[in-house]
Fold these 4 entries.
Entry 1:
Amino acid sequence: MKVLLTGANGQLGHCFKDIFPSDWQLLATDSLQLDITDGLAVNNFVALHRPDAIVNAAAYTAVDKAEDEYELAYKVNAIGPKNLAIAAKKYHAKLVHVSTDYVFDGTKSSPYLENDLTNPVNVYGETKLAGELSVLDNYSSTIVIRTSWVFSEYGNNFVKTMLKLSQTRPELTIIDDQLGCPTYAGDIAKTILEMLMNDIQGGIYHYCGNESTSWFLFGQKIFDIALDQNLLFQVPVISPINSQSFPSKAKRPLYSVMSMDKIKKYNLSGSNWEEQLISCISKIRSI
Ligand SMILES: NC(=O)c1ccc[n+]([C@@H]2O[C@H](COP(=O)([O-])OP(=O)(O)OC[C@H]3O[C@@H](n4cnc5c(N)ncnc54)[C@H](OP(=O)(O)O)[C@@H]3O)[C@@H](O)[C@H]2O)c1
C-alpha cells in the first residue's frame, strides 16, 4: 500500500514513520514539502503520486496561540483537511484525518460518544470541528479519529514540559479539575495502520487512553517514573490547583473523557498509556 503522510515531523507523524510497514511505500511530507492549505499543491501531489491512502497528521495545535491566530488555525485545521478530502475522493484514496476531544465543551459527566453534541470552547476546538465537518462533507468515506492528551518522545507535550520544568522549578502547581485520557502517539499510529489494513468504514471514531486521569495525577505519574528511571534525582513539590486559579488564554473543557465502545467493536484496544509512559520516558532519557 502506498500512503501519503502529512505533518510527518509532528508527534504523530514521527511515530507513524517509526512503525510504518517496511513492505509498504511511505510518502512522508512536512509542511515545506506539502503545505496542506495549498489546494492546488495538494491536488497535484495526489495526482502525481496516486497514494492508496492519505493520513493527515498535520494540524495547528497551539491551543492558546490559536486564540490570536484564528485565520491561520482555520486554514490549517479546516481548509487543509478539506483540500485533502477533495483530492482523496477525486483520486480514490482512503483518507484518515485526526481530530480532538476539544470539539466538546466538557460539561458531560460520562464518556463522550461519537454522536454527542459538539460545542467547542476555544478557537482550536472550533477550527478542528470545522475540519471534521469539511472532510465528511466532501468525502463521506473519511475516517476521523478523535484523540486526546497526546504524548510521545517527540515534539512538545505535557510529559516533556513537566520534565523540563522540573529542572528549574522546585515547586509546581498542576491543574487537577480537568479530566481526560492521555494517549501515546505511537498507539494512534498503530491504530491508523490497523484501520487501513482492515478497511474500516468511514465516520468518526474515538481513540484515546484506556484510563482517565487529571493533569495533576498524570504529572505525579511522570515524576514517579522519572525518579524510578534515574532520569531525575529530585522532583519538584507538586500541588493541585483548579482551572480558575490557573488562567490561560484558551478555555479548556473540564471533562474530555471519550468512550471507545465504537472502535472496540473492531477489535481495536485503547492506548495503555501508563505502560507507554514508562517506555516513552525511557526513550526521552536515551535521547
Ligand atoms: N497534541 C495533542 O495533545 C492533541 C490532542 C488531541 C488531538 N490532537 C490531534 O492529533 C493530531 C496530531 O497532533 P500532534 O500532537 O502530532 O501535532 P504536532 O506535533 O503539533 O504536529 C503537527 C504537524 O503539522 C504540521 N503542519 C502545520 N501546518 C501545516 C501545513 N500547513 N501543512 C502541512 N503540515 C503542517 C507541523 O509542521 P511544521 O512544524 O513544519 O509547521 C507539525 O509537524 C492533530 O490533528 C491534532 O489536532 C493532538
Entry 2:
Amino acid sequence: MSEPMKIKLDRTMCDGFGICAKHAPGYFSLDDWGYASMIGDGTVAEADRDAVMRALLDCPVHAITELGEHGPLGQRSPAVSPEEATEPKLTSENSEAITEFVR
Ligand code: SF4
C-alpha cells in the first residue's frame, strides 16, 4: 500500500483567495481576512485525496505543496523504473531489416 499523501501550506505565500478551503474544508480554514491555515498535521486521508489535490492545484500562488518520500510535487522520480526506461538492446536479429535495406 502507498504512503498517505502529506501536504504543507506556506502561509507566507498565501494570498487569501480561499479556494483551498472551498475544495477541502476539512484541511484548510480561513481567518477573517481569508488567509488559510492548515487543519491537522497535513496527512491526507485516502478518501480526501482528490479534494486536497484539487485545492493544491487550484491555489493561484502554489502555497500548498505535497510532501513525501519523493519530495515536493514536481520533483518526483519518474513512474517508470530505470530498467524499464532504458532503450531496448539491439541485436543482429532486430537489425535484420536495416541490414537488408543497406545491401
Ligand atoms: S488557495 Fe492558496 S492563496 Fe488561496 S487561501 Fe488557499 S493557500 Fe491561500
Entry 3:
Amino acid sequence: MDKNKKAMSSLEEAIACPVCQKTLTTAPSDCNQCQNYFRQEVTKMPLAPVDLTPAQVKDGVDVVNFQPLRTELFRLPIISFLYERILPPIWAMGLRNRGGMDTEFQQCIEFFGQNLGTVADISCGTGIFARRLALLQQCQQIIALDYSETMLGQLQQQMQRDGILPSQITIIRGDITALPFAPNSLDAVYSGAAIHCWPDATTGVRNIYQALSSGGKLFATTFLQPLPSIIFRFFTADELQQIAITAGFHPDCVQVETRGVYGTLKCIK
Ligand SMILES: C[S@@+](CC[C@H](N)C(=O)[O-])C[C@H]1O[C@@H](n2cnc3c(N)ncnc32)[C@H](O)[C@@H]1O
C-alpha cells in the first residue's frame, strides 16, 4: 500500500460517528440515526474541515446543545482573531511553562517519542501545536479538533501562511464530551491549555482514554488553582491526577507536573 493510501485508511479507521461510534467501514450504508450525515461528511476529509459535533450529526435529537460559557466563549470571532495574536508573547514570559509554546512543544514531543502514528490535537484552538507537528513531518496522520468553528477558521488561515497543505492536517469540529474517534484508534493526544475550558473534565479525559490505543500517550496542560473558577474551572494538581485515574488511566501511568499556576498531565494507557 502506498503511503497516502495507508494514511487515508488509518484516518478512516480512527474517525467514528460521535453518536453511534461506528467508523466508515462499520457504519450502515443507510444509517437511520443520522440519515447518513456522518458518511457524507467524512467524504470531505482530509481536504476540507468536517463538522462531527453530536448536535450536527443528530440534528439536535436527544443531544444536549447547551454548552457552558467557558466553551462558548471561544466561538466568538473576536476571541479567535485575537487569541494567537496576543497570547504567545505573554506565555513566553513564563505564564505557560518557561519559554511558552516552544518549551511545551519540545516537552510533548520528547514524551511522545519516536514513530508517531496518528496524533490528535484536541481542543486545538488555532492549531499552534498541530501546525508545529505538521512542519516536523514525523507523523503518519495529524488530526486537529476543536468545538469552535472560528478557532478552526484561524487554523486554516495560519496553515496557508505557514505553507501547510490541507492534506497535512485533518480538521474536525468536534465536542470533547462526545469525541468522533473509534476506541483504541489514536497513538497520541495533545491537549494544550484546555481542560479548564471543557464542560466536564473527567468526561473529556475519559473520552481521550477510550480513543487512545494501548500504550497511547496523553500530554495535556491546564491552568490551576488558586486561579478562581469564575468562568473557567480550575483544579488543583491532586484533582487533576484524580481526574486522570477516574477516567481510566492506571495510577502508575499518571504524572502531574506543576509550575506556578500551570500544570502538565502526562498519561500512558
Ligand atoms: C485556551 S484554548 C487552547 C487552544 C490551544 N490548544 C492552545 O494550546 O492554545 C481552549 C480551547 O478549548 C476549546 N474547547 C472548549 N470546550 C470544548 C469542547 N467542549 N470540545 C472541544 N473543544 C473545546 C475551545 O474552543 C478553545 O479553542
Entry 4:
Amino acid sequence: MSGNVEFPMNGGDGANSYSKNSRYQVEAINLVKEMIKEAIAKNFDVTSPSFSSNTIRIADLGCSVGPNTFIAMKNILEAIEWRYHSKNLTSEMPEFQLFFNDHAYNDFNTLFTTLPPDRQYFAAGVPGSFYGRLFPKSSIHLMYSSFALQWLSKVPEELLDNGSLAWNKGKIHYTIASKEIADVYAAQFAKDMDTFFNARADEIIVGGMMILIMPGFADGVQYSQDPSCPFFYAFNQSLLDMVKLGMINEDEVDSFNLPLYATSPKEMTKLVERNGCFNIERMEVFADYNIPLLQS
Ligand SMILES: C[S@@+](CC[C@H](N)C(=O)[O-])C[C@H]1O[C@@H](n2cnc3c(N)ncnc32)[C@H](O)[C@@H]1O
C-alpha cells in the first residue's frame, strides 16, 4: 500500500460488512455518551448569537455506513435537546441538519437506505477527505469523528525508499519496526492533524465544539505494547509465510505499509497546542480507548 489512502470499510450488511463487524467501536460510542452530554451542557452555548439561525448543523467525519454513526448522532442530538430543556428554551428548539462525511467510495447507498425512519434531522452526505476543507466557513456547530483519525492521509514516502533509514523492509507497521520508522509515522500524523485542525477551525462557528474518539494508549506506553501489536505481527508473519510459499514476492511485502497510527494524550496535547486553533476541554483514556474533547 502506497500513496494517498482512500479506501472505505466494507459496505452492505453482509457477514463481512463494517456494520456487522464494528462492535468494538460502538462500545466506545456508548461509553462516552454521558461524557458528551456533560461536555455539551458545559461548553455548547446555545444562547450565543452564533446559534440564532435556528438550525444546528452537525458533521460526522469518517462516518462509514452505520449503524454506529446513527447511534452517535442520536446521542448528540439528545444531549443538545436536553441542553435546551435545561435552559427552558424548548419553544426555541432548533432544527437539525446532519452531514455524513466519508471518502467518495464509502457505501453511501447503504448509509442512506438505512437512515433511522424516526430521525428528527435533515440528512446530507459529504464525500471527500477530512484532511481538507469540506464545508463553508463558519457553518458547522459541532464536529464529531470516531475511529477515523487513526487513518493517515498517506503512507509516508520514506517507508518505501530503500535509501532511507526508515525503509520498512519486510515490515508492515511501526509497532513491530524500528524507532526511525515509528518517527516517520509520528511525523505524518502530526502533519495530518495540523491540516485537519486548520480545516475544522475554518468551518466551525465561534463557540462550536469538536468531539474526537480515537484509538490510542496512555502516556509512556511503548509502541510495542500497543494492544493491536499482536494483530499486526500475525498479519506481517502471514505475508512473510506467503513469500516463502511463492504466493507473493518480497517486493510486495516491502511496499505494503498500514497507514494507521494510534496517539497518546501527551502527543495530542502537543499537537493541539502547537496548532493553536483549539483548546482541549477534556481528554480521557478509557482502557485502550483515547477520547479527546476539543472546543474552538
Ligand atoms: C473504522 S471506520 C469508523 C466509522 C464510524 N465513525 C464508527 O465509529 O464506527 C473509519 C472510517 O473513516 C473513514 N476515513 C478514513 N480516512 C478518512 C478521510 N481522510 N476522510 C474521510 N473519511 C475517512 C473510512 O473510510 C472509514 O469509513
